[in-house]
Design goal:
With 343 residues, this protein is α/β, with parallel strands linked by helices. It has 3 domains: 2-190, HUPs (Rossmann fold), CATH 3.40.50; 208-260, SH3 type barrels (Roll); 266-342, Elongation Factor Tu (Ef-tu), domain 3 (Beta Barrel). Helices cover 22% and strands 31% of the residues. It has 6 helices and 17 strands. It has helices spanning 11-22, 46-53, 63-79, 86-105, 163-172, 194-201, and strands spanning 2-6, 26-33, 57-61, 110-112, 117-121, 127-131, 154-155, 210-214, 219-223, 246-251, 256-260, 266-277, 286-291, 299-307, 310-320, 327-332, 335-342. The strands form 4 sheets. It has a 6-stranded antiparallel beta barrel. Strands 3-2-1-4-7 form a 5-stranded parallel sheet, with helices on both faces. The protein has a 4-stranded mixed sheet with strand order 9-8-11-10, with no helix packed on it. A hairpin with a 5-residue loop joins strand 5 (117-121) and strand 6 (127-131). Helix 1 (11-22) runs parallel beside helix 2 (46-53), helix 1 (11-22) packs across helix 5 and helix 3 packs antiparallel against helix 4. The longest helix has 20 residues, at 86-105. It is globular, with a radius of gyration of 21 Å. It starts with a strand and ends with a strand. The model has no long low-confidence stretch (mean pLDDT 94).
Length: 343
């Protein structure tokens, strides 16, 4: 069938397109222009990657939509004292939102990407999202917010492979991207300094110094603006305490950073808002594995409705640095049930 492949020019998306070609599909490459590369950057060349495979390619400029749908909410979330997850938001709104609409308009039967995740059938035949075979690269956490009705239109050719195999297969096929290093940073935050990026985007005076206190309210120092901190952070707190202290909570209403020892970071519960379900949800309490960060091992928990579409998660064992703004993703073994945003 006709398959639209989102191509960055990196090894993952290029090999995904190559594998689909080998399976006999009609492959169309598309690249989303979401941001301008910083000066001196050496971005991959997706058009050249597509040309090497002999497939048509186009670039779609979505910079304005990306700013509105991803960057602006990212800045607003930081300003509200949260630590947002822009990749999950981008996947839901842009890559598997706007781009999926383009795939449909082009008459494509599927939209493919180089994500390390899988689409698997359920006993009733409905497609489900599942973890990738390579646990170290699994990206299902970042895909929880895509629309349930889109799952049947998605293809993840690399979902059953590990990264070493992907690079080996790319080398076997002579793909120029085979040895290209991976990009780890947020695409629109050069240098990964999220606090500085957010401060530049907010009105003057919004990011201001304020008190650093312990959980008893005793002042220990002065922070340089809450956007520069996140729950669990130890380095860069800006004062010496004579013992290890961590950012435990951010209070934007009082412009206060609360710090404490490692033991203060451990919590047994969270509440998630904006929950998106990828299968029929339970009417009441149920058991699941819950992941609170992309590299967090899913932990057993009991989930229960918390009113207003929110869900309360009670872990069997306390978890470290549960961070407002990040995603809580629910699993049944490898299958993604859904997820929401930690409140």
């Amino acid at each position: 069938m006709k398959v639209l492949v989102a191509m960055s020019g990196g090894v993952d998306s290029t090999l995904a397109a190559a594998l689909l070609l080998e399976q006999g599909h009609e492959v169309l490459g598309v690249t989303l222009r979401l941001v301008d590369p910083p000066p001196g950057a050496d971005p991959p060349d997706p058009a050249a990657a597509a040309a090497s495979l002999g497939i048509p390619h186009e670039t779609v400029d979505l910079r304005g939509e990306f700013e509105r749908l991803v960057v602006a909410p990212f800045v607003a979330s930081y300003a509200a004292g949260r630590t947002p997850n822009p990749c999950a938001l981008c996947n839901a709104r842009v890559k598997f939102g706007l781009l999926l609409e383009k795939a449909r308009a082009a008459g494509a039967g599927a939209l493919a990407t180089g994500h390390y995740a899988r689409i698997v059938p359920s006993p009733d035949g409905e497609p489900r999202l599942a973890r990738g075979a390579d646990r170290r690269k699994d990206q299902s956490y970042f895909l929880f917010a895509i629309a349930r009705g889109s799952l049947g239109l998605l293809s993840f050719p690399l979902g059953g492979l590990d990264k070493a195999a992907v690079r080996a297969m790319a080398r076997e096929r002579g793909l120029a991207a085979a040895g290209r290093p991976e990009s780890q940073e947020i695409c629109f935050v050069p240098g990964e300094d999220c606090g500085a990026f957010v401060a530049r985007r907010l009105p003057p005076g919004t990011v201001a110094p304020g008190p650093v206190v312990d959980e008893a309210g005793r002042r220990l120092g002065t922070h340089r603006g809450l956007v520069h901190y996140t729950v669990g952070q130890r380095r860069g707190l800006g004062f010496a305490a004579g013992r290890p202290l961590y950012a435990v909570a951010l209070d934007p209403a009082a412009n206060t950073l609360v710090v404490g020892p490692d033991g203060d970071l451990w919590r047994s519960e969270l509440v998630a808002d904006g929950v998106n379900w990828l299968m029929d949800k339970s009417a009441g309490e149920f058991r699941a594995l819950v992941r609170i960060r992309s590299r967090h091992e899913p932990a057993p928990a009991t989930l229960a409705p918390a009113g207003g579409g929110a869900w309360r998660v009670r872990f069997d064992v306390r978890q470290r640095a549960i961070t407002p703004g990040q995603a809580a993703v629910f699993y049944d073994d490898d299958t993604v049930l859904g997820g929401g945003w930690i409140r």
